């Protein structure tokens, strides 16, 4: 079982906390590419949250390219610690750009100009 924890008294949404903890586990190498994650209902029971909360977090990580869902085979880690770290930094950059009034196309132009 992954070593993930959530704090129901923290102002951050529970699904965001779950996703962040799984992202951290991937970045730390606790969950390696090719490994299967426990079923969502098992993770939910372990964390003391609703299964839908875990599923929402898992779908977000799938959309980031860190997880793959396979019918009958469960959820597999497809991302690497490096990809996880890059995604975390990109998320931070996108959030900062939004706070400073940059549109997505402007941010993409900035990233292209520095790469």
TrEMBL record:
The HTH gntR-type domain, residue ranges: 12-80
Alphabetical list of SMART domains matching this protein: HTH_GNTR (SM00345)
InterPro entries in the record: HTH_trans_reg/aminotransferase, Tscrpt_reg_HTH_GntR, WH-like_DNA-bd_sf, WH_DNA-bd_sf
PROSITE patterns, per database record: HTH_GNTR
Keywords per UniProt: DNA-binding, Pyridoxal phosphate, Transcription, Transcription regulation
Record-linked Pfam families: GntR
UniProt key word Transcription: yes
Residues spanning the membrane: none
SUPFAM superfamilies per UniProt: Winged helix' DNA-binding domain
Keyword Transcription: yes
Protein name (database record): GntR family transcriptional regulator
PANTHER family for the chain: HTH-TYPE TRANSCRIPTIONAL REGULATORY PROTEIN GABR (PTHR46577:SF1)
